[in-house]
Amino acid sequence: MMNITNILNAYQTRVITALEKRLPPTNQSPNKLHNAMHYSVFIGGKRIRPALVYATGGALNVDLAQLDAAACAVELIHTFSLVHDDLPAMDNDDLRRGKPTCHKEFDEATAILVGDALQSLAFECLAENPLLNATQCLNMVKLLSHASGSLGMAGGQ
Q: How far is 118 from 144, CA to CA, in rounded Å?
């Protein structure tokens, strides 16, 4: 029998592997942007949001492979929100998870572009899920865009 810690660790490992496959390689141009994206995504964190995606799907007997894109998308949106939240115009934080924030490690312009690129990548993950049909993908794009828009996360900021 698996305990909650083992389950969360398994979900964390799974989403990290899925994120590594979806993020552009750091040696691909524009290198600075891609390095900053990796820095921001892999700086740490509990990956609770993807775990909730996997746990919900598991409760509904959905194959975890069908959930990887959605798990990545919610983690990318979360990371985008943290990068933008840390910016001087918002909360002006210097540290995130004990490490320099993206705008401190790179620069403010790069951090803005990182957030933008992560948000775009989140929707790309949902739109290009080969294990789901087009209607399912479109519904997920609609739900995530609503949840992260003016009536959701952005409006709550």
A: 13
pLDDT of residue 157: 84
pLDDT by residue (tens digit) across 40-60? 999 999 999 999 999 999 999
CATH topology for 4-156 is Farnesyl Diphosphate Synthase (1.10.600)
DSSP letters for 37-99: HHHHHTS----HHHHHHHHHHHHTT--GGGGHHHHHHHHHHHHHHHHHHHSTTTT--SEETTE
The answer to whether 40 and 82 are in contact (CB under 8 A) is yes
Q: How far is 147 from 151, CA to CA, in rounded Å?
A: 7
